[in-house]
UniProtKB/TrEMBL annotation:
Transmembrane segments: none annotated. Pfam families: WD40 (PF00400). Keywords: Cell projection, Cilium, Cytoplasm, Cytoskeleton, Flagellum, Repeat, WD repeat. It is found in: Cytoplasm, Cytoskeleton, Flagellum axoneme; Dynein axonemal particle. PROSITE patterns: WD_REPEATS_2. WD repeats lie at residues 584-616. It comes from Drosophila arizonae (Fruit fly). This is Dynein axonemal intermediate chain 4. The keyword Repeat applies. PANTHER family: DYNEIN AXONEMAL INTERMEDIATE CHAIN 4, DYNEIN INTERMEDIATE CHAIN. It comes from the Eukaryota. Coiled coil: none annotated. SUPFAM superfamilies: WD40 repeat-like (SSF50978). Gene3D superfamilies: YVTN repeat-like/Quinoprotein amine dehydrogenase.
Length: 752
């Protein structure tokens, strides 16, 4: 190295030595930092190993405790050599980098002087630097202190043909848990999240953003505290049961009656004493009369108090359970038949549970016009009393709506009285406490059955709903747009004159209604069954057909169907107010009911005055199955909510139970209901009880007993029964095959 430096000048030689010293110091600093880093990592690894050594894994095997704790890895014999070699290697690399950087700087400065040679030496500066670098580096630092050679490690060959591994269940240790912030679209959780998002958008960026606000200053008041000496003992409240026998109640009532009789006799004796004595003064009599009036006013106030009303309600429920205990248990399905029982017989029978009989005012007999069960509470049913047949010779002058509870079949929970007959009502499936009521004079109102004040929420007015025809059907609609997420869902009202009105509930006490559709009579031959046109010319008295019923689509919220006296079904949309989507001729006469199957959004049934119950599928203009038994108009028909192949139909006198799997020529069960004519019927939410109303105002709760067990695959059984029934009609069979699957996704059931 010194020989190479002789060819340089004194200035360059000093500069080069100084650069070599700086590079050496820098390499030492980098080496020290690397050593510290490696020692830090080694200390951290040792701490982790020491922490893990505290855990012990033990398990009880055949009554003995066995230690399954993993052993730590032993240090290899080459570990120290490997660490030393890495330290020396890092030192040499750092020194080479410093020398090379410094030599490049010096080479740039002395290139001109070195090209001509220094002291006769023609060697270049690059060769000198390279010679210095490679002469100073020792590539084998461990050669100066070589250890004794270790014998080579020879692995022992594995001679077994298999490896036995025993896996045992260990204790579950949860290291990290994070709640999922996403849900699947289309599920109940997904619908709830979407509704929450729509409400948030409505309150932040939608119409709900514009809310009334007021700014006011407030100041914190002084908090007054009490000492322990003035604090009272905490009073605890508890609901406890008490027993009162019939004898005690009888004695109590007899005592009250005898006491009142005694007081009356005393008053009479004082007001007209015997023996010719002078009567009591007029002032004393007036005082007694005032006292009696005060007692009467206090009693009336007590009867009007909501707490007293609720107490009477609870007492009535308790007393009713003594008479209707067995019927209540059957309504709730407390005792279900055993599938494995050998005594089960399929008789399709019906058993009466109880009868709801309202009190008649002024002997004004009112028919049951409509029945609606609450969607949230299956024990609550609303019944409308008024006019059912518009051709009736006697029209009642008043109407009622009674809200009954199965807990007390003797008395209604709510009673609403009207000056006109009630013709239609319907509970809201979206806000279960709301009920819409239609009248004979065309008026519509909405009430909240949870409110004790008996005041309607909103009523219609002639300015927005000028129709005066009777309201025959009411159906609630689901909100479609996201802008109206905070408003109450609207509902449709069908009048007898063929007009459909859409009502909205707002902050006003009046319903906002506008005409949604006005029906026109059908000309020519529409699709559906063929009915020959009479050769004689007939002129209709009204150019609008008579509306009879209203049905909404189970999937499409904007689709609804109107049933008329022409036997046609008009498919309409809330987006089109002046035209129909489709018209289907279903019956030769009026069509009364249209109901979709709970297992298919495309399969539906209709019943009419031509004695038939017909089953249709959307997309085919011919009926799949026709059911005919009695030669009487059919008022009501519906699919069973719990069995996909059972249909129940009701006419004026009887109730028929059809089973498509067994027979389509005659009903499997046929039962006479009551002496009075039947009007309307409805299934309970459980699907095991049929509620039938008649013209006398009585409502019968009939339990469906000895019924076949519901199949496990409901849609498959329904599809097989339909294909079996139309097997002889090849054209219809091919058309139905071309439609393919016509059920809900995953073959589930949806309440209609």
């Amino acid at each position: 190295m010194d020989a190479n430096l002789k060819s340089l000048s004194d200035v360059d030689r000093k500069t080069f030595k100084r650069s070599v010293m700086v590079a050496h110091d820098a390499s030492n600093t980098a080496l020290v930092a690397k050593k510290r880093e490696m020692h830090y990592y080694a200390a951290e690894v040792n701490a982790d190993i020491e922490y893990r050594s505290q855990f012990k894994v033990k398990e009880n095997v055949d009554g003995e405790e066995v230690d399954y704790t993993p052993n730590t890895l032993t240090e290899s014999q080459y570990t120290d050599k490997f660490m030393k070699f890495n330290l020396h290697l890092m030192h040499n690399i750092a020194t080479m980098q410093m020398y090379h950087t410094r030599g490049s700087m010096l080479r740039s400065k002395t290139r001109s002087s070195m090209r001509g040679g220094v002291g006769g030496n023609k060697q270049s500066m690059e060769e000198l630097i390279n010679g210095i670098l490679y002469e100073a580096i020792i590539f084998d630092p461990a050669g100066a202190h070589k250890d004794e050679e270790q014998p080579a490690h020879m692995p022992v060959p594995f001679k077994k043909s298999f490896v036995k591994v025993t896996i045992r269940k260990s204790e579950f240790i949860e290291l990290h848990s994070q709640i999922n912030s996403t849900v699947a679209k289309g599920t109940e959780q997904g619908n709830a999240v979407e509704a929450d998002n729509r409400l948030y958008d409505y309150l932040t960026v939608g119409k709900g953003k514009v809310r009334r606000r007021s700014d006011n200053d407030a100041q914190t008041e002084i908090v007054l505290t009490n000492s322990r000496a003035v604090n009272t003992i905490y009073v605890t409240h508890a609901t406890v049961g008490s027993y009162v026998s019939n004898f005690e109640m009888y004695d109590t009532l007899q005592g009250v009656v005898s006491k009142q009789t005694q007081m009356t006799q005393n008053m009479l004796s004082q007001s007209d004493p015997p023996g010719g004595t002078a009567p009591r003064s007029t002032i004393a009599l007036e005082e007694e009369i005032n006292e009696r009036n005060k007692v009467r006013s206090v009693t009336q106030q007590l009867f009007k108090h909501p707490v007293f009303k609720k107490a009477i309600l609870f007492i009535g429920r308790t007393l009713s359970s003594n008479f209707y205990n067995s019927g209540m248990q059957r309504f709730r399905n407390f005792q279900k038949p055993d599938r494995c029982s050998t005594e089960v017989q399929y008789k399709y029978s019906m058993k009466g549970l109880f009868r709801l009989m309202p009190s008649q005012v002024n002997d004004d007999r009112k028919a049951v016009s409509d029945i609606s069960f609450c969607y949230a509470n299956s024990d609550i049913v609303a019944i409308g009393y008024g006019l059912f047949s518009f051709s009736s010779q006697h029209v009642p002058s008043t109407g009622d709506v009674f809200v009954w509870s199965i807990k007390n079949p003797g008395e209604p929970e709510r009673a609403y009285y009207y000056k006109t007959p009630v013709t239609a009502l319907c509970f809201s499936p979206y806000l279960p406490s709301l009920i819409a009521i239609g009248m004979y004079d065309g008026c519509v109102e909405v009430r909240d059955v949870a409110d004790d004040t008996n005041m309607p929420i909103a009523v219609s007015q002639r300015s927005t709903s000028p129709g005066c025809s009777p309201v025959v059907a009411i159906r609630w609609l689901k909100q479609v747009g996201d802008d109206d997420a905070g408003e109450i869902d609207p509902f449709l009202s069908l009048s007898q004159d063929g007009s459909v009105t859409r009502f909205h509930l707002g902050k006003s006490p009046y319903l906002l209604g506008f005409t949604q559709m006005t029906l026109e009579r059908i000309e020519g031959h529409p699709e559906g069954i063929h009915v020959p046109i009479s050769p004689t010319m007939t002129v209709a008295a009204n150019r609008h057909p008579q509306g009879l019923s209203l049905t909404t689509h189970p999937v499409d919220n904007d689709i609804y169907y109107i049933l008329t006296d022409e036997g046609c079904i008009h498919k309409c949309s809330i987006n089109y107010q002046h035209q129909y989507l489709e018209v289907l001729k279903c019956h030769d006469g009026a069509v009364n009911i249209m109901e979709f199957s709970p297992w298919s959004p495309r399969l539906f049934l209709t019943c009419g005055n031509d004695w038939y119950v017909r089953i249709w599928v959307d997309g085919i203009t011919r009926p799949l199955i026709e059911l005919l038994d009695d030669f009487q108009p059919i008022h009501w028909a519906k699919w069973s909510p719990i069995n996909s192949t059972i249909i129940v139909s009701v006419n004026r006198n009887t109730c028929s139970i059809w089973d498509l799997r067994r027979n389509i020529l005659k009903p499997m069960g046929k039962h006479d209901m009551d002496a009075s004519y039947n009007t309307i019927a409805q299934f309970s939410n459980s699907g095991t009880v049929l509620v039938v109303g008649n013209e006398r105002g009585n409502v019968l709760f009939e339990a469906l007993n000895d019924m076949p067990f519901a199949p496990h695959f409901q849609y498959d059984e329904m599809e097989k029964a339909i294909y079996r029934a139309i097997g002889n009609d090849q054209e219809l069979f091919i058309e139905l095959k071309s439609i393919g699957f016509f059920g809900y996704p995953n073959k589930k059931a949806v309440r209609t």
